[in-house]
Amino acid sequence: MSEPITSDSATVAKSGVEVGTFASRRTLVFRRFLRNKPAVTSLAVLVLMFIGCYALPPLLPYSYSDLDYLALQQSPSVDHWFGTNSLGQDLLAQTLRGMQKSMLIGVCVAFISTVLAATVGTIAGYFMGSRDRVLMWIVDLMLVVPSFLLVTIVVQRTKGNIVWLIVLLSAFSWMISSRIVRGMTMSLREREFVAAARYMGVRNWRIIVRHILPNVASIIIIDTALNVGVAVLAETGLSYLGFGIQPPDVSLGTLIAAGTQSATTFPWLFLFPAGVLILIIFCANLIGDGLRDALDPSSRALRKVRK
Amino acid sequence: MIGFLTRRLLNYIVLLALASLLVFLLASWQFDPLENLESRNPRPPNTVIEAKAAELNLDKPVLVQYGLWASGAVRGDFGTTVGGQPVSDELWRRIGVSLRLLVIGSVVGTIIGVVIGAWSAVRQYRLSDRVITVLSLLVISTPVFVMANLLILVALGANTSLGVRLFEFTGETSPDAVGGAWNQFVDRLQHLVLPTFTLALAGMAGYSRYQRNAMLDVLGQDFIRTARAKGLTRRQALFKHGLRTALIPMATMFAYSFAGLFTGAVFTEKIFGWHGMGEWFVQGVTTQDINIIAAIVVFAGVTVLLAGLLSDIIYAALDPRVRVS
Predict the structure, then answer these.
(1) Is residue B238 within 8 Å of residue B122, measured between CB atoms?
(2) Phi-psi region of A63 (alpha: psi -120 to 50; beta: other; left: phi over 0)
């Protein structure tokens, strides 16, 4: 993609129109995204939550592991905004700690798995032939068994190590996206500009980086945003079952698992972490939708179908 | 068409065999089935541990283990658990439980989802469409384990306010259910509602979103206008030409979403206390039992592939181009 043309450049195009008055694709996309109120709001909320869960804990009087024997299972109050659990641990501090884990894992997994998907998809779609067949066989093979089951089998030995969790979750969540990227690449490689580059002797990897990747970028960006939600879901799911983050450390999944045991009598133990989790995934999905509308306006039927 | 399906089926069988090999290797690399025995206090004598290892074929190379397991599995014998019980007996009991949940959940979820999606596409930008869009996004953003527990809370509230135990949320039946077949049936139904609804909700939300998009794409097409121009009513044009075309991408969705449904069943069964395959999977991983895991993975693979085959059939039924080529 070309650099955005700033209005202070005095260059004038051949047509006599000042170049600065044109909006580059990037600015157009940016403007379309900004017009989408829900997406912008959720981006702000998500960024705030990300900063908040790292910045707030030092300011709180309680750490996530502190036990307050004078405040066992208290409902939300001024001292303990989210209440306390049966050991007297402050739920706000615990929820923030869990958010750190879940959001970090979510973002990292989304990026890594998207990079994997883009690499596999473009290689399979661009080179076709044997490479395509082998890669797509691997994808088919990994899709036969629900990937959550595969991650669960392997994750046991890692004892809640975050780096391993990120690696494993990324390794098992790129398959469907890579199929989509492959499909787009296959149609792109038939286009004239790719053929022209090939006849001029441009190397294959250079064609992929310069010509194919920018053209599948929109789907990759959308996918990254949507994958954040999927990754957070997978991590909290594993932790909920007791296979992910291990105590004494906490994740939103372990908090929810602990909270459900007493959800009927002490509902805040369940509702606060669950609400935060839903909010994170909801925001990630709204951002993904907003990016889709901004990057690929044709995907949304703009015409009002009314009669 | 028959040739097409046969080719797909053969492809699936090869995939399934390879997947089971992959999982078997993965599980035997990760699991240590003897850990429980070895960590007992006092530690059992070595001869006991070795006898157990020999019983489970753990003393042989991994590939030989897989060969023995696979030759048994083809004949319907999935080996024994670490505890010594045959896996097959338990397997058949649990398959019925899981299938009831999965089949009803997926069918209900798909049909209602498609109907809601198509309806909200036709009413694009009206209030009902907006409400459905926001609601479906909210449901998609809610993990199954949160949704299940929320539904339990709601059901509890409903039970107390009604003064009757209308909704049940532990197990498949009540042990104290007495009376004739009708009472038993009602009892089972009461237990079935919440878990099935939990599973179906996720499907509904997902399908309604995709169906809405697919339907919107189709509604703007020329052939709908042509159908209207040749004199069909709006309803006829939408149903005969619009919905049918918009359903084609859903067939592919169905194949992909079944894996997610199975994952959802793991949580649903665990939370609602159903002794199905999902609950067994969690048990199998906790006790590091290779044979249980292998059997469950084969079952999961078979259901996913059957869903894939079904989606191929639906695809071929909806899209004439597949049948011709």
Answers:
(1) yes
(2) beta
Instruction: Give the side-chain half-sphere CA count within 13 A for B81.
Output: 20
Distance CA A224, CA A287 (A): 10
Q: From B271, B284, B224, B237, select the one nearest B81 (Cα to Cα).
A: B284
**Cβ within 8 Å of A, B 12-31:** 15-16, 18-19, 22-23, 26-27, 30-31
Contact B101, B268 (CB under 8 A): yes
- Cα B301 to Cα A132, A251, B100, B321: the distances in Å are 23, 30, 17, 28
The amino acid that residue A85 corresponds to is: N
Which stretches within B75-220 are classed as H helix?
Answer: 87-122, 127-140, 144-162, 181-219
CB A227 within 8 A of CB A74: no
Say how far apart CA A236 and CA A172 lie, in whole Å: 16
- Cα A101 to Cα A290: distance, rounded to the nearest angstrom: 25
As to burial, measured by CB atoms within 10 angstroms (0-12 exposed, 13-18 middle, 19+ buried), residue B32 is middle
For residues B322 and B304, what is the distance between their CA atoms, to the nearest angstrom? 21
What single letter denotes the amino acid at residue B199? Answer: L
Its pTM stands at 0.86
pLDDT bin (cut points 50, 70, 90) of residue B325 is low
The length of chain B in residues reads 325
- Residue (of A87, A99, A305, A122) closest to A213 by Cα position: A122
Q: What is the pLDDT of residues B3-62, one digit of tens each?
A: 878 888 888 889 889 989 988 998 888 888 887 777 777 778 888 888 888 877 787 888
- Around B246, how many Cα atoms within 13 Å sit in the side-chain half-sphere? 31
User: How far apart are the C-alpha atoms of A233 and B287, rounded to whole Å?
Assistant: 25
How long is chain A? 307
Give the gap in angstroms from C-alpha B215 to the nearest C-alpha of chain A.
10
* CA pair distance A84, A266, nearest whole angstrom: 10
Neighbour-count burial of B37, counting CB atoms closer than 10 A to its CB (0-12 exposed, 13-18 middle, 19+ buried): middle
As a whole number of angstroms, the longest Cα–Cα distance in chain B is 86
Cβ contact A301–B259 (<8 Å):
no
**Any bridge partners for residue B86, and if so which?**
B80
- A285 Cβ under 8 Å from any chain B Cβ: yes
A13 and chain B in contact, CB less than 8 A: no
Which residue, B277, B22, B209, B30, is CA-closest to A143?
B22
Question: Is B23 within 8 Å of A145 when comparing Cβ atoms?
Answer: yes
What dihedral do alpha carbons B8, A135, A218, A212 form, nearest 10°?
Answer: -120
Q: Tell me the C-alpha distance between A211 and A95, whole Å.
A: 44
Among A262, A281, A279, which residue's Cα sits nearest to residue A83?
Answer: A262
CB contact under 8 A, A285 and B26: no
The fraction of chain A above a pLDDT of 70, given in percent, is 88
Provide the percentage of residues in chain A whose pLDDT is more than 90.
Answer: 35
pLDDT, tens digit (0-9, with 9 covering 90-100), for A76-108:
777 777 777 777 778 888 889 999 989 999 999
* b/e sequence A221-246, b meaning 16+ C-beta within 10 Å: bbbbbbbbbbbbbbbbbbbbbbbbbe
Report helix, strand or coil for B310.
helix
Distances (CA, A) of A125 to A132, A180, B186: 7, 10, 54
| Two tokens, residue A303 | 């015409």
Pair of tokens at residue B228? 């209207």
